[in-house]
């Protein structure tokens, strides 16, 4: 076939795409900054196991993963407990990130993909309007297509010419600053009822904290919409220990600061010679930040779009099929959840407690199963007149909260309408105009 494809960065979606495209006969090389043994964070990830079968892999042996616990949510006042009740067939799996990489890389190499480690991507190489390669600390590398899997702060996406219409960076309240670690178990007698507790607007701040009992250790995550400091982390840990004595003081693993995207998917995923995937394309679920499964499923869509282009042009027009399928199957359902996330950022702590206490948000609302395609029906349920009328009636005692909830409903309706108007064909001016309307639906 002779066509050369570069995968910039070792993101999960990029590696999955490398496997699928190598299998189809393309010459694919993944360029990754870290050494092989240093890829990924030293913790577990939660995602849909069907992501493996989506790219033609067998689900790894059960010895390599376990089913996640249902989450229990509390508002800042701890007055109301909302616990998920996820159907067993919709439970996500919990798996070591290092093991996920082991499985994906082994599969990609079996398919014929090549890996170059210790190569830091610095930006794209352009020829006119086309991306023709990547600039790295080891020199420039050229290809017919660059798949951008460099993550939230991708130097490829950030340095694309503005006239391509691809948003360069996440904006305020679109990135989440996270600190996560596994701690030794503290002294505690008795059964821990809520195995996975999520505290919303914890300590009255915009963000969450979670405490998950994993038997041999306690999994702690602290996430905020502003950058975290060591001092803030220690302050939060001390507050958590008062309520959760099984949180010990010795860090066993992790202890890293990272950034994750919590926003709607990138409005424009493609350009001539370029396709974004995974965190580079903001493919996470906006209210929980999970994106591994979406990225791997998107890899199959990208590979199929490339295979169906008989001209092998890798043009934006040819790659637009990838964008259309991604939005039809995933993006259209994920986007309204960004409006739900924005509601949470607008609420005062006392207002969130009110919403919990009045049942405006209930356990069903907080349950998102592994199958992301169900998100579209979930959004439709949010806009169903009868349940919506009941929720709005329940807010009669708080005009301020009612106003914020009605704004969210309006935003969900707007983005649901806009996504249906995505151009059928790639025409740069129409695409840019649509992207502006799409992003305008998410103003805080």
Q: Between the first and last Cα atoms, what is the distance in angstroms?
A: 48 Å
- Spans with pLDDT under 50 lasting ≥5 residues? none
Give the assembly state of these chains.
single chain
Overall body shape: globular
Q: How many H/I helices?
A: 12
Widest β-sheet, arrangement of strands: 6-5-14-15-16-13-17
In helices, the fraction of residues equals 25-40%
Radius of gyration based on Cα positions: 22 Å
Average pLDDT works out at: 92
Give me a quick take on this structure.
This protein is of the alpha/beta class and 444 residues long. It has helices at 12-23, 50-54, 97-111, 155-158, 230-243, 292-308, 316-346, 349-357, 375-382, 385-394, 399-419, 428-439, and strands at 4-8, 27-32, 44-47, 65-67, 72-74, 81-83, 93-96, 114-117, 121-127, 130-136, 139-142, 145-148, 175-185, 196-200, 207-213, 218-224, 247-261, 270-271, 274-276.
Features:
globular; 6-stranded mixed beta sheet; alpha/beta
Helices and strands in order, then pairings?
Layout: E1 4-8, H1 12-23, E2 27-32, E3 44-47, H2 50-54, E4 65-67, E5 72-74, E6 81-83, E7 93-96, H3 97-111, E8 114-117, E9 121-127, E10 130-136, E11 139-142, E12 145-148, H4 155-158, E13 175-185, E14 196-200, E15 207-213, E16 218-224, H5 230-243, E17 247-261, E18 270-271, E19 274-276, H6 292-308, H7 316-346, H8 349-357, H9 375-382, H10 385-394, H11 399-419, H12 428-439
Parallel strand pairs: 1-2, 1-12, 2-8, 5-14, 12-19
Antiparallel strand pairs: 3-7, 4-7, 5-6, 9-10, 10-11, 13-16, 13-17, 14-15, 15-16, 18-19
Helix pairs in contact: 1-3, 1-6, 6-7, 7-9, 7-11
């Amino acid at each position: 076939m002779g066509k050369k494809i570069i995968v910039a960065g070792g993101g999960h979606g990029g590696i999955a795409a490398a496997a699928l495209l190598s299998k189809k006969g393309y010459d694919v090389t993944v360029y990754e900054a870290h050494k092989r043994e240093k890829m990924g964070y030293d913790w577990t990830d939660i995602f849909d196991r069907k992501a493996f079968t989506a790219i033609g892999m067998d689900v790894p042996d059960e010895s390599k993963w376990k089913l996640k616990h249902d989450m229990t949510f509390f508002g800042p006042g701890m007055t109301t407990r909302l616990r998920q009740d996820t159907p067993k067939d919709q439970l996500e799996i919990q798996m070591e990130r290092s093991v996920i990489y082991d499985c994906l890389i082994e599969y990609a190499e079996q398919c014929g993909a090549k890996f170059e480690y210790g190569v830091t991507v610095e930006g794209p190489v352009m020829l006119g309007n086309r991306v023709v390669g990547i600039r790295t600390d080891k020199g420039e590398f050229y290809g017919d297509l660059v798949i951008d899997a460099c993550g939230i702060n991708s130097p490829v996406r950030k340095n694309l010419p503005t006239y391509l219409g691809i948003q360069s960076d996440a904006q305020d309240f679109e990135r989440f600053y996270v600190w996560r670690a596994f701690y030794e178990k503290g002294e505690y007698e008795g059964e821990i009822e809520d195995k996975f507790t999520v505290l919303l607007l914890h300590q009255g701040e915009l963000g969450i904290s979670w405490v998950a009992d994993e038997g041999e250790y306690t999994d702690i995550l602290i996430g905020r919409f502003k950058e975290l400091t060591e001092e803030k982390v220690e302050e939060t840990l001390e507050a958590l220990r008062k309520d959760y004595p099984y949180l010990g003081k010795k860090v066993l693993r992790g202890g890293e600061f990272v950034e994750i995207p919590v926003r709607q998917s990138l409005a424009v995923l493609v350009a001539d010679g370029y396709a974004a995937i995974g965190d580079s394309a903001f493919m996470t679920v906006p209210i929980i930040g999970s994106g591994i499964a979406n990225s791997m499923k998107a890899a199959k869509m990208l590979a199929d779009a490339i295979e169906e282009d008989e001209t092998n042009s890798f043009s934006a027009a040819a790659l637009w099929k990838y964008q259309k399928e991604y939005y039809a199957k995933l993006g259209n359902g994920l986007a309204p959840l960004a409006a739900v996330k924005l509601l949470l950022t607008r609420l005062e702590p006392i207002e969130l407690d009110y919403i919990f206490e009045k049942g405006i948000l209930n356990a069903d609302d907080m349950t998102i199963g592994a199958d992301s395609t169900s998100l579209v029906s979930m959004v439709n349920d949010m806009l169903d007149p009868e349940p919506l009328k009941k929720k709005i009636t329940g807010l009669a005692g708080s005009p301020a909260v009612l106003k914020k909830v009605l704004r969210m409903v309006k935003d969900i309706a707007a983005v649901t309408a806009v996504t249906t108007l995505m151009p059928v064909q790639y025409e740069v001016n129409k695409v840019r105009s649509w992207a502006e309307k799409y992003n305008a639906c998410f103003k805080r």
